[in-house]
């Protein structure tokens, strides 16, 4: 759980911008850019806001994260993993990721097989990140534990409460390790506002580069320290 406050990022941004009264860059603007940073971070690192849920599947093989009649995760951006069977009448066994081409080659009619409450495999195509496939086809009673990514909720703190001296205790809606990259994103957007000045244009570019470099470094580090049995998310395709 994060402990970094939204006003902490506002305070640090204003100090670097030499605008501690919030005159040139309003605090509501800074808050908007904090909210925008969530979207950019999760776009690059979907696992930055990963969550798990037990969901009920739709009948058949294709599952949609936003399907109001089944999974119903309207804010979900992409599936990260389908972990295990959860239905009371299921075996509760683990579900393994598989390349869809294996089933297509060996069982060309697998989409038409008998529906089951016990899911054995799941597949996804990165071109359709809000959908995934299951084998065997699911019944409407099938339930699975699902890991997924979503954009953190936006903040809507009043301007007066964003004053770093006001004592607002709202914390950021993402892990504290992303606080520095959020600050770089806010500064990138702030200096972009005055990009007609050469110095600010370069500062803007520098903070955007720092934002991208930090997220890229974390991606490299995570790949290097992940258990060998875990398939990197970027390699999971159908």
Could you please describe the fold and organization of this structure?
β4, α3 (100-106) and β5 form a beta-alpha-beta unit. Strands 2-6-5-4 form a four-stranded mixed beta sheet, with no helix packed on it. It is elongated, with a radius of gyration of 22 Å. The chain is built from five helices and seven strands, in the order ααββββαβββαα. With 238 residues, the chain is α+β, with helices and mostly antiparallel strands.
Short description:
The protein is of the alpha+beta class and 238 residues long.
Keywords:
238 residues; alpha+beta; 5 helices; 7 strands; 18% strand
Question: What's the SSE blueprint?
Answer:
Blueprint: H1 6-16, H2 27-44, E1 50-56, E2 60-64, E3 76-85, E4 96-97, H3 100-106, E5 121-123, E6 131-138, E7 143-150, H4 179-193, H5 198-225
Helix pairs in contact: 1-2, 1-4, 2-4, 4-5
The strand count comes to: 7
Mean pLDDT: 90
Main beta sheet strand tally, sense and closure: 4 strands, mixed
Strand line-up across the major sheet: 2-6-5-4
Q: Please mark out the parts with pLDDT under 50 across 5 or more consecutive residues, or reply none.
A: 232-238
Oligomer kind: single chain
Q: Specify the helix fraction band.
A: 25-40%
- What is the helix/strand order? HHEEEEHEEEHH
């Amino acid at each position: 759980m994060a402990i970094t406050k939204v006003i902490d990022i506002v305070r640090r941004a204003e100090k670097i911008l030499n605008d501690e009264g919030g005159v040139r860059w309003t605090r509501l603007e800074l808050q908007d850019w904090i909210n925008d940073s969530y979207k950019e971070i999760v776009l690059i690192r979907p696992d930055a806001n990963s969550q798990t849920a037990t969901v009920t599947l739709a009948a058949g093989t294709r599952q949609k994260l936003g399907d109001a009649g089944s999974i119903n995760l309207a804010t979900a951006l992409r599936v990260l993993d389908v972990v295990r069977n959860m239905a009371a009448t299921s075996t509760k066994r683990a579900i393994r990721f598989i390349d869809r081409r294996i089933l297509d080659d060996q069982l060309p009619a697998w989409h038409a097989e008998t529906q089951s409450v016990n899911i054995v495999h799941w597949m996804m195509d990165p071109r359709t990140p809000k959908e995934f496939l299951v084998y065997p086809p699911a019944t409407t009673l099938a339930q699975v534990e699902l890991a997924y990514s979503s954009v953190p909720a936006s903040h809507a703190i009043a301007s007066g409460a964003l004053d770093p001296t006001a004592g607002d205790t709202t914390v950021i809606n993402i892990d504290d390790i992303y606080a520095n990259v959020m600050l770089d994103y806010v500064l990138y957007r702030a200096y972009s506002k005055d990009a007609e000045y050469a110095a600010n244009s370069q500062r803007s570019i520098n903070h955007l580069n720092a934002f991208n470099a930090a997220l890229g470094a974390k991606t490299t580090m995570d790949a290097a320290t992940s258990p060998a049995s875990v398939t990197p998310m970027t390699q999971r395709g159908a």
